[in-house]
Amino acid sequence: MRQLIQPHLLGIDTGHAPGFRFDSPGAIDETCLVMCFRTPVRILTRNGIETGAPGCCILHSLDFREYHFSVPGSREGFRNDWLKAAFEVVSPIVAELKLPYDTLLPTGRPDLLESGIAAIRAELENPDGYSDTAVRLLLHQLLLTVRRAYTEEMRCRTVMTPSERDYYPAFRKICDSLRKEYRREFRIGSLAAEVNLSPERFSVLYRKFFGRSPYAELIDARILAAKRLLTSTAFTVKEISAMCGWQDQYYFSRLFKEKCAVSPRDFRRHYNRYAK
């Protein structure tokens, strides 16, 4: 059985000179071309020749002409991340995720595919008996990332005002920080200062963007981390409380029970082999 992805048929931040034009009548090798552009580009879609902005992705169907080139007047040409994968593998994933072919999918994230392609490349360069399964899973994850980013970008464009869209990338970074750095103590005032807003306006926009308050975001991140520690380590409840950002073990236990309907010890007893 042929490989799902050939090691030489993928690239990260591939540069193309200003005069370069990619023109192929279609995937004669039964592959699907998946791309995300890091620079503006002119590209043929089902709507005709369009200009794609940085962060635009596209998936080409088998019989569609693959044609793209630099924006006229560009001095650097264009750059993209890309891969070609067996269409028989891509097709059911695309159908499941309801991704359209031959259509520009704006995501606002020019490096969206970088980590996914890097993971696939690493798997292809060090194959073993499980690589076929691993590549399938990584490809599914990569296309899911496109679906999520595209959906989020479309939501931003339809429910946000232009000024709110300007703020959104900074709010996205703050949201990511709350989730990843949940051990830290955050203050609304300091978070608001990062985007030059009043605490009141910051809180309103955060809730509009993410459907919850910054405090709820932080608490949920801490509770999730506590669940992981309760079910995968032998740390005491007191130790886990401190590791997740709470110095008061009893407050942590009350909050955990409020959120999960069981105490931390009961949660561990049910799920964890370390329960005594």
TrEMBL record:
Domain of life: Bacteria
A GO MF term: sequence-specific DNA binding
Keywords, alphabetical: DNA-binding, Transcription, Transcription regulation
Domain HTH araC/xylS-type, chain residue ranges per copy: 172-270
Entry-linked InterPro entries: Homeodomain-like_sf, HTH_AraC
Pfam family, one: HTH_18
SMART domains xrefs: HTH_ARAC
Protein name per its UniProtKB record: Helix-turn-helix transcriptional regulator
Native organism taxonomy: Bacteria, Pseudomonadati, Lentisphaerota, Lentisphaeria, Victivallales
